[in-house]
Specification:
Order of helices and strands: EHEEHEHHEHEEEHEHEEEEHEHEHHEHE
Distance between the termini: 46 Å
Oligomer: single chain
Strand content: 15-25%
Strand order of the largest sheet: 2-1-3-4-5-6
Structural class: alpha/beta
Largest sheet: 6 strands, parallel
Number of helices: 12
């Protein structure tokens, strides 16, 4: 049995991508190990939302190589080292130049191709890479027994991003938005419930941008551009999963303020198994900075969304994200952000200093 060691850096979507990688590699004889020294294949599943996270990948590879020299038996063949995830997608072939120990680069839409890429290296190729992006890429589906956690199940509903905020690299690393057919989402949620899972997280870069085509009778067909009067939207998907999955607890992340609407609150009010939590990143409390960020909403519009959530029947917990030190931010802009935080009274905040990302206007 060949051994796989895999590390995950980043968000819940990266955690779910690791589950997918473990699953497809199990199909070609790989079993996970908690020790790099025991591994035949070492994968780092990476995040590139912030500069420090991207730099950490190459530092971590150096640490692993050092530990292998210290602990691995001299007679054993050196493991194949690979990088997957957002750093792999953004840096692509440049990773081979930055780190000669890396032999495998796997983009965000290429997890299903991992067995073929690994086979190329095992069969004598010095390196293998696949970082192609497509708006028609399939969603890799997992069975309930292929999950890392026995308590919380992750279910992808939409991948990619069309927003192009001026500081964000996600549209370049995850591709354009594509929504998963609602019947497949429901089938996965039902399977998790039947296997004993009590909690599921619906995942996407912008979950409330979700949309597929729907038949008038409620049947659902695959996504793509849909007519205005024949769309199945995020609130519809929430209601479908809440009413038919049999799950006790359903969460979702991450929302985008521009796409958040009252229908979502209505559905959350109606179904007790939709957890009373909304993560709604503001990023700034200054209209001037929000325009520079290309967020597509104003401070007033963001606060209207908050009032909408607080006006719901249930007592919703509200969390968010903030960026400090965005290019051109003034003392006055920062004060505006502080006042927004005070007005909203967030239950939790992820607060980051601005991090330049290559190819973005803000950088």
């Amino acid at each position: 049995m060949k051994k796989l060691y895999i590390e995950t850096h980043g968000c819940q979507m990266n955690v779910h991508d690791t589950e997918k990688a473990v699953s497809v590699l199990a199909g070609v004889g790989y079993q996970t190990t908690g020790e790099p020294a025991d591994a035949d294949l070492i994968l780092l599943n990476t995040c590139m939302v912030r500069e420090k996270a991207a730099r950490k990948v190459f530092t971590r590879i150096g640490h692993i190589k050092h530990s292998l020299r210290e602990s691995r038996q001299p007679s054993r063949e050196a493991p194949v080292i690979g990088v997957m995830g957002c750093v792999a997608q953004a840096e692509a072939g440049r990773i081979f130049e930055l780190c000669r120990d890396v032999r495998l680069v796997v983009g965000t839409q290429s997890i299903a191709k991992l067995p073929d890429l690994v086979a190329q290296v095992e069969n004598g190729f010095s390196r293998a890479i696949d970082v192609r992006l497509s708006k028609d890429a399939d969603f890799l589906e997992l069975d309930a027994h292929q999950r890392d956690s026995r308590f919380v199940g992750y279910v992808s509903i939409i991948e990619g991003c069309n927003k192009f905020c001026s500081y964000c690299i996600v549209p370049f690393t995850r591709g354009r938005e594509r929504s998963r057919p609602a019947d497949r989402v429901l089938a996965e949620a039902k399977a998790l419930a039947a296997s004993g899972y009590k909690e599921v997280h619906l995942l996407g870069q912008n979950v409330n941008s979700y949309r597929t085509k729907a038949y008038p009778d409620g049947g659902v067909i695959d996504g793509g551009a849909a007519s205005v009067d024949n769309e199945f939207l995020f609130a519809d998907l929430l209601e479908l999963v809440a009413s038919k999955s049999g799950l006790a607890r359903i969460k979702y992340t991450t929302s985008f303020p521009r796409d958040f609407n009252f229908r979502i609150v209505e559905v959350m009010d109606r179904y007790e198994n939709l957890c009373e939590w909304v993560h709604l990143p503001a990023q700034s409390g200054s209209d001037r900075v929000l325009r520079a960020m290309r967020r597509g909403y104003t401070r007033r519009e963001y606060l209207e969304k908050i009032a909408m959530i607080k006006g719901g029947r249930r007592d919703f917990s509200i969390t968010g994200d903030m960026i400090v030190g965005f290019p051109g931010e003034t003392e006055g802009d920062f004060v505006d952000t502080l006042s927004l935080v005070a007005e909203v009274e967030f239950d939790g905040l992820y607060i980051f200093k601005y991090s330049p990302r290559m190819r973005t206007p803000a950088a």
